[in-house]
Specification:
Elements lengths: L1 E2 L3 E5 L3 E6 L5 E6 L4 E2 L27 E4 L2 E4 L16
Length: about 90
């Protein structure tokens, strides 16, 4: 495992995988045996994201609010996970 502050890289004999701290988004999956990139390259002219984690919802909730067990929460499109900072634990 390698960490550069904003990215985590995990690697073995078959794959190299890079994950962004923000949103725990996969930013690279490289198949070493096939010598090819497997994940979308995030071409800005098309779509500048790779594989965002959409949790707990895909899409929008009515009125931008979600109620759980009587407590109301403001909820952005696609939930909150894609905009959080994550730490690699193990």
């Amino acid at each position: 495992m390698k960490q550069d502050g904003t990215l985590f890289t995990l690697e073995n004999d078959e794959l190299l995988v890079t994950v962004a701290r923000r949103g725990a988004e996969l930013t690279r999956i490289y198949d070493k045996k096939a010598d090819r990139e497997v994940l979308w390259c995030a071409e800005p002219s098309v779509w500048n994201r790779h594989a965002p984690v959409l949790f707990p919802f895909v899409g929008k909730v009515a009125g931008g609010r979600y109620t759980y067990r009587g407590q109301e929460y403001k909820m952005t499109s696609h939930g909150f996970a894609r905009d959080m900072e994550f730490e690699l634990v193990d």
